[in-house]
Amino acid sequence: MILIVELLILGAILLGWWFVNDKRSYKKYPPGPPRLPILGNILQIASESPFPSIAFLNLSKKYGEVMFLKMGMVEAVTFNSPDTVHEILNHEKAIDRTRSTLPMIEARMYGRNLGIIFSSGEPWQKMRRFTIRTLRDFGFGKAASMDVVVSEELEKFTGYLQKQMTTEGVVKVDGLFDLTLVNVLWRLVTGVNYSMDDERILELLKLSNDMIQNTKFSFDASAAFPFLWHLFPQWSGKNLQMKVVKALQAYCRVTLEYNRKNCDYKSNPECYVDVFLQKIDETRNDPESEYTDDQLVLCLLDLFQAGAETSSKTMSFAMLYVLIHQDI
Ligand code: HEM
């Protein structure tokens, strides 16, 4: 009995010490809900909503538009209104944005600061500007040039729908637009155009979706406690994620090599990859150059994942919405 009381007192002292220390450590951080040892704010977030964005919004009503949260070992500041997001993104220090430190993201970037989505600082700014400029040069976002590509893909898409309805009688909406949207984007990015039943690209899209959908508890837990990712590779999703990352990296590298060998990129660049290859050649002797094969692989990987999944899910949602609300 005495031992239990002693343990309880020790526990209370340790807890008190932890709270004082925690308050001191995060004195200069934005306000946020009180944290628990080890878990941080995980319980408060989970009790608000299964969707983090909604949980953040609810909590921010109490703690402010700029809020500090600790999710296990991960520290985060959330910006919870369009105005604060706008202000932060336009701040000169936004260029130093530090992105996720998840081990999977590190592995995806070959442990370096590459690509657009997860990179930071000057390399991010350079790659982002180069990518937007180059895609625009090839007609991205311009109705006059996009219309031709979109109409061609639409024709293929409706042909596929008709065939599917004749043979199967049903069409699965989830993932229905994946390949069509990749095709539209990929014409400008790589110059390649896939048929609607290209098995290799369909498999890659499926893998990519599997990875993005893989948000089960173990994935969240290893995001909050990254050491779990290494410790339990099957349970945490590490094995699946690494399989997908390696497959996508390999696919992007093959694409790059294909254009290098088969396209007249030096004198007649016809897509984003071609212009990037020109840049690699031009800056080959500059050890500081951002334009490298690995950088191109990561930019392709980012465009593939950011461009396909987002647009495709938006289209699937819109289609289902119109089906359910036929009166609108
Ligand atoms: C309906 C379609 C789309 C939606 C809803 C969407 C949504 C988003 C969001 C929310 C972000 C910010 C993510 C973050 O910073 O954490 C983002 C970033 C990004 N998106 Fe999209 N996106 C769409 C289409 C596209 C397309 C078609 C492309 C390719 C051309 C693309 C390429 C990118 C890239 C490269 C980034 C990273 C930008 C950066 O960090 O500087 N997205 N997208």
Automatic annotation (TrEMBL):
The keyword Coiled coil does not apply. Gene3D superfamilies: Cytochrome P450. Keywords: Iron, Metal-binding, Monooxygenase, Oxidoreductase. GO terms for molecular function: heme binding; iron ion binding; oxidoreductase activity, acting on paired donors, with incorporation or reduction of molecular oxygen, reduced flavin or flavoprotein as one donor, and incorporation of one atom of oxygen. Pfam families: p450. GO terms for cellular component: cytoplasm. GO terms for biological process: organic acid metabolic process; xenobiotic metabolic process. Transmembrane segments: none annotated. Belongs to the cytochrome P450 family. This is Farnesoate epoxidase. It comes from Orchesella cincta. The lineage of its organism: Eukaryota, Metazoa, Ecdysozoa, Arthropoda, Hexapoda.
